[in-house]
């Protein structure tokens, strides 16, 4: 505490009378918990035109999904996502499963007339993503919305950065450098989870971390990448199988280990259509870096920098100031006029990771209520997928510069 | 995203079957919103022995309190706190009003057999605080708990700091320096809210910000202050009245301004019983510092540092390391083994301000279920009040060193 | 490297033809080495009106002073400072001895018609400092200059801060907080050097570190302190004697230890004449802080912050900017238009600690050539001494607020 | 000040009796000033086996070189480097000219029996560098030394990093990321200096900044790069000619502008022989970044990070510590046991940019006195040149991965 009052009750109407938006969520692990928090909180903090309802949660293990429903506050539970989609009391399907099932579930949900929120990466292949984007476009004409979950656009600091770029505060863009550094695979005894198996995850750090930074880079730059040159590497190629997961893993050896079939790290450089240069690095081997999504944009008039490990801060250098007084300033993105912040706490009382999911829910609810195409759309997700495919192609072809398909 | 799975369902039982803890909250402004978020979320994230229910909210304006109830998810609303206390369906009274009403409400709630959570500062005077601590002690013998809301003990980083001090990681304590810097009064046209009026707020930055840092300093040091020497100042002595608040303000002038009757800033030094020195600063005039509660402890074996504006970080210097490799390290307090963190997100996915209220709710629920005296107790709140009183006394007596009453 | 050319030869004349300023330096330990570097380098980097000559160095041990002369480049060596002062080939006496001999040497040097540079603190007592300031005033009328060595005014960042305060960039001053944290006494086995003996050093961290921060605070604020309230402490009261230093130490015990007769730490608060508040802390027990002279000034229009451990940086918050884009900015004080910097390296190529002595030499040479009263003068040194005396008096009198004598 | 004494006179002998090392320096612009400072200071701070003498300086403009000699303290001046090499009173030739003349001067100096220190990059082409390395090898057999001036190896922090890598403190290397960011070309009206002309500079940011980071990356990793994939760009292709430099610039247009014939920015990725990945970025368009040479190494046991804008700090993450207490620590590289530091100031009293040249002089003097092959040698300079050539080749060939010639 320790601040002037935040007046309450200014918005006098309340959530209770608003029409509901009934959500059915598939998956209940890490992303499921985060999305639950988002749906549960959005209407309590923001004044929303629709009232999100945590209607149904779905998972294959009946006992576990029931426990998750109770824990996270979902009214009902299903064990087959087809049943969830078939329910009349679900308006929106929120897909939090691994990437290999995104396309099938999303296509079915759209066919069933539901709105869809799909975790990133949109799909494991460009083909799947194309089918999804196409279905989303058709569904949009029927009034259904489809959004892809690039939640890092909804950190107040990145949203402010986007505004500042759009307002011309950094001028002609010269450089974008983005990295997403984690370290949870440094230990060669870390187990072979689904995230390390191509058939489930599609790719490794590239699809997991790289998808985020490609989306953010393009979102902030306001333009797509034109081409990339890439190196990828798998540092540890064999890992112990996780506890009960040995069954059915074709690559498993007698000794209880299995092959890592995805990349551990991906480095790539690229060009934007405007001629700006970009550099990307995604890795799970950056010892000591826990969630270091770092980005910097340099333009002819200024620069912006951000680090997800300090997500309430945006650093800005205003190149139009006299040299004697210029410098990178730390904007604490906690002021009422900053994106999303007015609904929260007084200046300096920072937000955390999960707030991105609250903001995502907020924005999607508004889009649904207003019939607006959500941002980022499945088409945006497809475009990111094409960049990732070009990265993989370049890495296979001796790093040769590979244009992004349009 | 981008992390190994957080296994769910380890704690298999769910909130639904647990007995409820029915909360009645008085006040619904800034603290009310924060406490609501805490009560609403605690049972969704932590596995609690009792299920918090947002039973009743109370405020004087019937329409506004009804709107707040809907917004924040409270089942019922009252306009008189006496009615709230009289209800059978309230187990715990959560007091979020200005300090002048804490004593009356808390004493009544304890007399009515309720548990109590009271926002800090515990009261506006030592006398009130003594009565409250005494009543809390009596009530404890009847099985009722009373906690004071020093929520900053429940930032994972400060909780970790306390553990490290208790574990001897910094050795004999030499220095504690703490400041709490805000800037919302820099503008002389900022209005004369209740926080600037002695009859409501008791004191200014001292009770608001100073109470926090006195509590944290003593909590982290693990010992009480023995005495203090203080300077206080009111930089801007007359301010415009807020919109509709002119009525009844005896100090109001014809011109629509009123007297600031509290301190704007308080500086004090002190001694701990062990001989360690402490320095404190609380101000609302530190331009550009939004919520900078900064602390540093220096001991013979190491040091710890923290800044609330970067609340996911604790800085630690291990003085037992060889000089060549020693340095202040940034511990990102987001690991599963850190206090409170296991229930949240993977490493590096930080928390925010409001999580302190979720943790406060969690800890209080556990204390109630187990009949444990809560920490910090009303006695702890009284002790802080005595320090604040000594600060005011010293400031009045030409800064003379003033022992803290025991 | 990696920068546009710094054009050379713009200032076409050279040091060779300039009249010399022949320096005689008393003392050759830490400060002697630093001053040597300053005198040796100033004329190589800056275009000076007089050419500093390292004429004579003086120390009691003939062999050691001869070695120091060779090492540091002094043309001659003396073993009695009276002989140094008597020499015709010395224009300026630079006093780098412990504080107990400052007065005697400085008075003699002024009496002998020399200019004087005296290390801080000016003296060990107010009485000595008064005599020195008085003699300096008289000497000034004869054309002699006397400067006290508060070298931290000559960090480009602090000099820039002073300019910005003077230019009104932070507006009406509200707060000054300054600390000087070191840790070299944390180990109770660290020996009892002269710095821990009152008869030589005058005081402990107060005169050594506190003198610096009192001077800087007043220099930056542009006004003197009006009064102070202080706590001091000696944490470790007995320490081993250093190797050969046991002789003559009256407090030495049989076991080879001696009494620490100075303060280990000093905390004080104060008021400026304008009503701004100040807080000070000087300690040698801040584990992990090596040379952390940190300062922050908060004014009604902006704030400035500095840390000597990052001496090329000045942090500035411009409070007149819109909240959405405001923040503390890191000014890298390495631009050609920054104080002292044009003579050095391109932007971003930082300076170090010793450069303050080069700048001190530069400024003193200019003052001598132009007959200008140097800044800081002995009168400034005396004023700091009065503040230190008030600190000691307050500490002795139960921290009571003690006005500074004028 | 404010520290325990640095004992002086431990090394009792002095420079005066030592045999001289007479230096002749070619060039006197930015690098000339820095090298002068290095030669002038090294023997005053370090105890050297030979006494560096600033014997002769050389430049084409007689008046300017004479002024530079006076300014920087050189005993004599020449206007033709051939005359400098021909002098008997020169033992070592220090080459500070643009890269196009390095080979000719160095080969002549080696042929004349001189030791050589040559600024980086070693040459503008691999062919020249090969000739130089070959000549250096032959000369070494005759007792002559040849060093290339990668001064950033001699920042105490980078030297410490090298030690820590060699000691296994970070374990198997996974990632090296290095960037060197400046911003002095952001303004399209910045003039077309020699650094922007291929015939003089060889390349742009690549040879200037890229050479530094390639050398540092390989030095710290302790192994050479195996191959690279690169993108380069010239953002502003035409610039105004500088004042008097229009003559003879064939690309100059009537309007007083000329073509930029070098890269403005170079991005490349690479692989080390061990399989570690590397990423590099060199640019002069990073608005607000003045001299940001940033590097990070991630290994299986730990990580190291450095930023030249804060050159007294090395950040270290020890991955072998328990997660609860681990974090990147800021080692202030100012302890007596840190490389080069013992000769300087007490802990926390930082060094600056120019100290790298003092250390370079120190190391070269020791190598000469001991007949040791200097580090980095011309062979090391050649190897860096081969990396730069591979970068240019890859950039021309659509970024295809290009092995480094051995």
From TrEMBL, chains A, B, C, D:
Pfam families: GFO_IDH_MocA (PF01408), GFO_IDH_MocA_C3 (PF22725). One of its GO terms (molecular function) is oxidoreductase activity. The keyword Ubl conjugation does not apply. This is Gfo/Idh/MocA family oxidoreductase. Residues 21-139 form the Gfo/Idh/MocA-like oxidoreductase N-terminal domain. Keywords: Oxidoreductase. SUPFAM superfamilies: Glyceraldehyde-3-phosphate dehydrogenase-like, C-terminal domain (SSF55347), NAD(P)-binding Rossmann-fold domains (SSF51735). Residues 160-304 form the GFO/IDH/MocA-like oxidoreductase domain. It comes from Streptomyces cadmiisoli.
